[in-house]
Specification:
alpha+beta; five-stranded antiparallel β-sheet; four-stranded antiparallel β-sheet; 3 helices; 9 strands; about 25% strand; extended
Length: about 120
Amino acid sequence: MKKLIVLLVIAFGTTTAFAQEGKNMAADHPEGHQCYMMKDAKLMHCDGKKASAVEKHVKLDNGTVVQVDGKIVAAEGKEGAMLKDGQCIDLEGNVGDCEEMHAAMKKTRTEEPKSDQM
């Protein structure tokens, strides 16, 4: 019986670990602003509420890859710019100043009409 339980725990743990690989961040936060930003020479994931350090390369919705050092590699493999401290890249691959992008996103969210008002 103990062996069966151990095997089930190992199988579940392995399945969960593989499910995390290549995860699409947009599915985790369907609403709100998301971006990846450079802060103090570290790549951070920002979901509009908090920022957390990123330890693996990230693939955006448009196929662009953002490496942990801030290097941007286009979907077709062409290396692009480097993110500088204070810059963000959103899930569509648009690069800009973090404060400006966050302010614009907050403004957009407050201007959207509520669906229950008809």
